[in-house]
């Protein structure tokens, strides 16, 4: 099943590589990825869709992303800020 996450992150060099490596370690494929700047130039929003086997795997993705230093929030679906 496809899952959508919207994350707010600090806009720093190398973040996208670390972000993608979290999903690679979990053997997940990113189906769609969009990065948009925030009004505050220090923060960006990353929206991505990935295929998850179940809710347990989705929770693992969330936990691992939140462990990254530059990740502020991880939300399901389409959230408005």
Features of the shown structure:
81 residues, alpha+beta, Alpha-Beta Plaits, 4-stranded antiparallel beta sheet, globular
Question: In summary, what is this structure?
Answer:
InterPro entries: ACT-like_dom_sf, ACT_dom. By secondary structure, this protein is of the alpha+beta class.
What's the topology here?
Blueprint: E1 2-10, H1 15-25, E2 30-37, E3 43-51, H2 55-66, E4 71-76
Antiparallel strand pairs: 1-3, 1-4, 2-3
Structural summary, described in words:
- By secondary structure, the chain is an alpha+beta fold.
- The protein has a single domain, classed as ACT domain (Alpha-Beta Plaits), CATH 3.30.70.260.
- It is 28% helix and 40% strand.
- The chain has two helices and four strands; from the N terminus they run βαββαβ.
- It has helices spanning 15-25, 55-66, and strands at 2-10, 30-37, 43-51, 71-76.
- A four-stranded antiparallel beta sheet has the order 2-3-1-4, with helices on one face.
- It is globular, with a radius of gyration of 12 Å.
- The relative contact order is 0.33.
